[in-house]
Specification:
5-stranded mixed sheet; globular
């Protein structure tokens, strides 16, 4: 199964996440101090039937990653998500 992890940032509350499968929220959390910590918390609760996750930050999808990639390279996955969202928002302003 592939889930969607939606991460959001609020400057007062930190990073939050929703883990979604088949249009239903499986679980969520908030209060993480960084994107990587929020991503790690989201992945922590996944069952063995999940093999990959689509990552979205601030509503912008950056890609679908095998869980092994998220576990071994979380900083790269996080940076790609932030860069993708920034590029999309910049393009919308032009």
């Amino acid at each position: 199964m592939i889930v969607r992890i939606e991460l959001h940032h609020d400057k007062h509350e930190g990073y939050s996440y929703d883990v979604i499968a088949e249009h239903q929220t499986l679980y969520n959390g908030s209060g993480s101090s960084s994107f990587v910590n929020g991503l790690a918390a989201a992945v922590e609760g996944l069952g063995s039937d999940v093999h990959a996750a689509e990552i979205a930050f601030q509503g912008i999808v950056s890609g679908t990653y095998p869980l092994a990639t998220i576990a071994t390279r979380p900083n790269e996955v996080a940076q790609h998500a932030v860069n993708t969202a920034s590029a999309v928002y910049e393009a919308e302003r032009e």
